[in-house]
Amino acid sequence: MGGQVSASNSFSRLHCRNASEDWMSALCPRLWDVPLHHLSIPGEGGPDTDDDCLNKNPHFRTRKSGCLRLLNRPLPCITQPLPTGAGRHGAAGRGVRYWTCDRPHAGGSEKNLHFVHMVYTTALVRGDTLTEISEWLERHPREVVILACRNFEGLSEDLHEYLVACIKNIFGDMLCPRGEVPTLRQLWSRGQQVIVSYEDESSLRRHHELWPGVPYWWGNRVKTEALIRYLETMKSCGRPGGLFVAGINLTENLQYVLAHPSESLEKMTLPNLPRLSAWVREQCPGPGSRCTNIIAGDFIGADGFVSDVIALNQKLLWC
């Protein structure tokens, strides 16, 4: 099966054309039978951030961490959202296959749900955010995405049911029901393209289409070397049994914000992406205790992060 396409040919094909849009189907066929939690998958966003690049509407940037909420009254110019402009290419088109759908909340009317992030939009759940993902997947039937719905503070049971109903109505048979982590070949054979993790136990009990929350290694560190030390410590403790995320997200704390009032998370992150990308290139996917799976970060379109994460799958062919 795998002998028909060599590793070098497969990855040459992946990198010499704009294959990030369809990188899963461009993998060497030997990797089609590797479970998703043993592949290397690029992700975007984290516990406190989400770029939501699929949304083409104007979006806003704001800091939402606890320490920054303390600054809201004395320093609203720091903590309040500022318009930033739109027109980014879709994250899925760049090769991202994991992202968070953070803090859904009701706005205006009870059934007018929005996703809210540290980097957030006013995209309606039933509108741009989920529908555009579904439409993109229809055009790319052999690509698979993982959506992490989390941070449900204050969401009522009725709104949980409404949100899950939206997810099921929009994605339909594309949803992969909870069970053993599948391989690409298994997903393709069933026409399934979406895994939804959902951090609400009662909803999980009611809906077999939902998966438990995907663990996220979030370092909560300002400095790059401190973040890398945290990630290496987590690796030494052993990887989770299923899908999980290693986050290369730098995080502002109160001390940093007070010392750099005119800076942003973007200005802090971009100069450090080369060092973080160097760490990414050292990683290896697979079942081993120190192996990585999903690697996610912020502002990853500004560097070769996505192609670096995808290229790690080549190491599976050397085993």
Automatic annotation (TrEMBL):
Biological processes, Gene Ontology terms: lipid metabolic process
The terms under GO molecular function for this entry are: phosphoric diester hydrolase activity
Q: Which residues form the signal peptide?
A: none
The protein in question is named Phosphatidylinositol specific phospholipase C X domain containing 1
Annotated organism of origin: Pan troglodytes
